[in-house]
Amino acid sequence: MTECNPVAGRILRVDCLDGLRPETWDCNFTLSYVRLLPMTTIQTKPTDLIPALDSLSISCNSADSLMKAIVALLHEKLKSYNWVGFYMLEKDGDREVLALGPFKGAMTPHTRIPLNQGICGAAASTGKTVVVDDVNSDPRYLACSLETKSEIVVPVSVHGKVVGELDIDSHVTAAFGPDDRALCEHAAVVLGRFLERTPS
Ligand code: SME
Prior knowledge:
Bound molecules: methionine sulfoxide
Radius of gyration: 19 Å
Number of helices: 4
Distance between the termini: 46 Å
């Protein structure tokens, strides 16, 4: 059902229909007719989300809420981002491990990853973004879901030191192109700068 009560200058919410996505409209004029676009015709360009990431870094008041908001934004807006989550470095005796933080998507068996394991370990230990177009042909890959085909992992740094990473899995082969990389690296910078401003 469409709830349509347009009033000039008010936010109008159009609720979800089968096969259609919910939209919030900034209604600066009186609408008498709203045409809903099928979900398949609405594609968000990854880098279009950069301003929204910048806004989150201002509106969130803790690193945890910022991580949750970033994960929710990317998972909701980009349909090929099927699993989105943060891993943060934690002490585990005399070594460091990547501990699962906020995420959206299916539960993963990999809640604590040593630095010498997985795509995640490779990104954190080298401090460099890793993009894997076909996870099944990469011997480092730790399987999270049988459906995963490609993955990007971007380190998060604070004052030049890796403290964690953003990990995204897709059910699509080679889902992460230059625009995706730019967006994910921006998300990592947003979190890193927030942590620099508000150390725990
Ligand atoms: N695939 C990752 C493990 C984490 S899950 O994808 C969420 C890796 O190879 O390190």
